[in-house]
Amino acid sequence: MLLSRTLLDLVDKASSQTFDRQKLESHDEMDGRQINIQRIWEGPGLGLQQTKLLLRMPWKHIRLVLLLFLTSDFDAVQSISVTTDQPNVVVNVGNNATLDCTYRTYAESLFSLEWRFAPGPKADAKSDKILYYIDGKTYRIGHQANRIKLIDQNPTHGVASIRIENTQSSDTGRYSCDINNPPDTSGPSEAFINLVVQVPPSTPECKVIGGPYLRNNVTLLCRSEEGWPMPRYTWSEINPSAVKSSSKFTIKDSNKGSLFLRNLTMEHSGTYICVASNVLGERSCQLVLTVTVKNEAGAIVGAVIGTLVGLLLIAVVTYHLLRQKRKNPKVPVVGHELREDAVAPGKEANSHLLTSSVHSHETNTNSMNSKYNIVV
User: Fold this and answer.
1) What string of DSSP letters covers 55-95?
2) 205-289 is classed in which CATH architecture?
3) pLDDT at 234 over 90
4) Which of 169, 175, 238, 257 could form a disulfide with 233 if both were Cys (CB 3.0 to 4.6 A apart)?
5) Which PANTHER family match (predicted)?
């Protein structure tokens, strides 16, 4: 405000001079009238600023021009601007990575800085706070806490860049630098940096999917657990034959690391090598493929043996059941079965007694008759 008042006072003083208007204008046209306005200020993110304005116009217009200039410039001071010179950073694993973040602002009493990190290549991934600066103190959070540092330990002078030491593959992702400095609220207050940590391929694993039998199909797989950019895979064989090298019998996928072999022959037997590679190097693995004739006779013998064992088991169970039945015969129920000529149970002895009684009675009768005859 003091600077604006001073400039306006100078303009008023110059415009109030009593001299001929035509001569002033002609003097301006001849010699020109140069007004050098020098404004100096200092604040966070600004440093030393100087602006010069050269005017060649009649005095009556100078006051209006100065008012427009001062108004527009003060509006710019009340804004904030956060930028980065390197929105994409690529480093090799183990090296240090510098994430650039600079800003312009004026107020500083409520200044705060915050760095956030979203892992992985997805831009919409959830971000977590990893560093923030407030009230003159720096706080670090997360698995990067011991490896992340501010380039300027006092980030209130326009530099909020950080350095990540001994980068790891897990550091790959999107970083954001956010400056909060009320009352400067207009303008971009956040900058984004994508960091890619390149990692060489790890030693891949080779394996066979499917049975390596004659006229069968198999797939050879090769995969590295680590590696960025994503490794490409190349399959080869020691001393390959013309039959095996023909595309009719093989299908390769360099991105997935697969080698498909169909209609196997004995010539497919051999040592296969897989190489995983990217810009940082390569690793390899190998496997031995042995094509054999499937033993169908063995399968038949196995089926026969299984059948015989089943029949033997059935015979043993049947024998056991019959033996148990013989040991415990079924007892018939008395009184429920009638036979026409059979003697009822318990009647045989009574029948014998009855016969004896009848015989005895007949004997006695004969005796009496004999006695009677004698008496007569």
Assistant:
1) --S-HHHHHHHHHHHHHHHHHHHTB-EEE-S-SEEEEETTS
2) Sandwich (2.60)
3) yes
4) 257
5) V-SET AND IMMUNOGLOBULIN DOMAIN-CONTAINING PROTEIN 2 (PTHR45046)
Pick the CATH number of 81-198 from 2.30.30.240, 3.90.79.10, 3.50.50.60, 2.60.40.10: 2.60.40.10
Pairing of strands 88-92, 190-198: parallel
CA distances (Å), origin 206, targets 152, 197, 258: 49, 26, 10
Q: Which two tokens stand for residue 115?
A: 């760095």
Q: Whole-angstrom Cα distance, residue 344 to residue 333?
A: 14
Tell me what pLDDT residue 298 has.
58
Q: Give burial (CB, 10 Å; 0-12/13-18/19+) of 310.
A: exposed
Dist CA 259 CA 250 (whole Å)? 7
Confirm if 272 and 259 have CB atoms less than 8 A apart.
yes
Amino acid at 172: T
pLDDT tens per residue across span 215-229: 999 999 999 999 999
Alpha-carbon separation of residue 361 from 134, 357, 374 (angstroms): 142, 6, 20
Rounded to whole angstroms, the Cα distance separating 117 from 173 reads: 7
Is pLDDT of 166 > 60? yes
Q: Do domains 81-198 and 205-289 have the same CATH topology?
A: yes
* Residue keyed to tokens 């797989």: 221
Q: How far apart are CA 26 and CA 116, in angstroms?
A: 63
Residues making up the chain, counted from first to last: 376
The secondary structure of 306-371 as a DSSP string is HHHHHHHHHHHHHHHHHHHHHHSPPPPPTTS---SSSPPTT-HHHHHHHHHHHHHHHHHHHHHHHH
Longest dimension (CA), the chain: 217
Q: How far apart are CA 167 and CA 146, in angstroms?
A: 11
Q: What's the predicted TM-score (pTM) here?
A: 0.57
Q: Using DSSP, state whether 156 is helix, strand or coil.
A: coil
Cα separation, 121 vs 123, in Å, equals 6
115: nearest Cα among 168, 195, 181, 191: 191
d(CA 273, CA 130): 43
Tokens linked to 223 = 């995969």
Partners of residue 86 on adjacent β-strands: none
